[in-house]
Amino acid sequence: MPKLNIVLGNVETLPEMTGKVVGIDYGAYVCLKNGIHMFRAYGDFDSVTDEQFEEIKKNANKVIRLPKEKDETDFEAYLNSISISYYDEVNVYGGLDGRLDHTLINMRIASKYPNVMRLISNKNRVMAFGQGEYEIRKDDYTYIGFFTNDHAVVSVGGVHYGMSHKELTQTDLFTGSNEIYRRICTLKVHSGIVIVIQSND
User: What's the DSSP call for residue 180?
Assistant: First the structure.
């Protein structure tokens, strides 16, 4: 099962990772500081010093440097340069706790790759799910919310506020601050794409 780990800039410590590791812009320096060798270092690297960039080049199999002026983030540019369908799992670290505009962009990106991409931080985990049935682990997260960018129909069990064939739209706000009873909850997406956000206080 091919796995890809993408490290963005807004994280300081990283967990142990298996699979390929790609550092995006300052995320490449985060990998360096955490002693993680990269398959790729990618971005315009406007967030690192010249000295840091020289160290990054020693810590990656290949470095790809982009122009600073472009119509997409470094993260988007990298995703557009690869075939995401090759990977069974894509974990993204450092994409939730920085600039709000980048956070929103990253969450929208995750919704484009349902069942594959997870955004992970110390306090949040975000993943989108397309049509199908799923089990979602509670892990160390207290709260769970279910949202959609458009329209979806979902059933959710094993949570404090269950739902059965509930229609969701992008204007619905009541689906946050739910809680998983035990270790897992069940999610069935009858139609559409559902964004699941797990959070800690």
Answer: B
